[in-house]
Amino acid sequence: MTGETAYHAVARNAEQLAVLSTPQFLDAIRAVEPLPQGGLRDQGWDSPTNWEALCRLIAMADQVGERYLVEAIALVYGRAPLDDPWDLTQSIRHGPEAAVGNDWPALLSIMLDLTHHALPGPRRWAVFELRLIADPSALGRLRAMAAADEDPEVRAEAANAISRLDPAAAKASPPARVSPFTDPEWRGDVSGRDGAEATRRIIRALISGALRSPLLDERLRRTGEAVVMTPGSVVYPPAEPKPSADGAARAWRATTPIFTRAPGADARAPSGLFAEIDLRRAGSNEVRARLLRVAPPGDIR
Could you tell me the pTM of the whole model? Predict the structure, then answer.
């Protein structure tokens, strides 16, 4: 983006924030505009301004932990993007977790309040944290969000959280869809606002184990590696086909590299395996994705 790594950009911002008094720090958080609230495409992520704002927000989240500022947790989350190409937003949780110490009920209460936020980004990452807190008392709210949240990414995150807290409930409460499927006979595994988001949901399902592949399972068993998120710069699928004259559902295919992390390693690396993914336009604001198989590149047509 700017030639500066996320680590150094966050560290640089942390140094600037560390010298602020608490009132100044809170004002600095309030001065940050909410980051992009839509899909990865055409959401301004090519702008150095958004890259800098994201790194500053992560540094602010870390400072919340350093200062034990529980009252600032909702302020930081309220500016979170719905997603980002580098998966940095996932780390927004570490500072707030440190801020509450072992008072998990306090963090649970804050996250439940954030699930009612007007913006989808704060709702999505609050749900992500609720999945990690894993308190069954959140199931009712998560079920409601999986069924009726207006944003498909938030619905998918809620369904993922339910599957961790209560697998049986996940089967009983599949995510509702804003638009009817163009082709009701086609059964996808995940969905997203566009092809890129749907593709990323497939990778996340492989990470969580919700989707399985015998070839990938064997590799992980043999090496002890773990599947990690594919870098955002390489998850974009081919361009979506233009609508056909007969109105048939648009379908296309993506081939996405699978990245893994070796035991004890900090960096992720290509595994040499690829996910072959079918994509299908399901409605005006939703693309379904289905994992066809995991295979080496030479086996994928």
Answer: 0.63
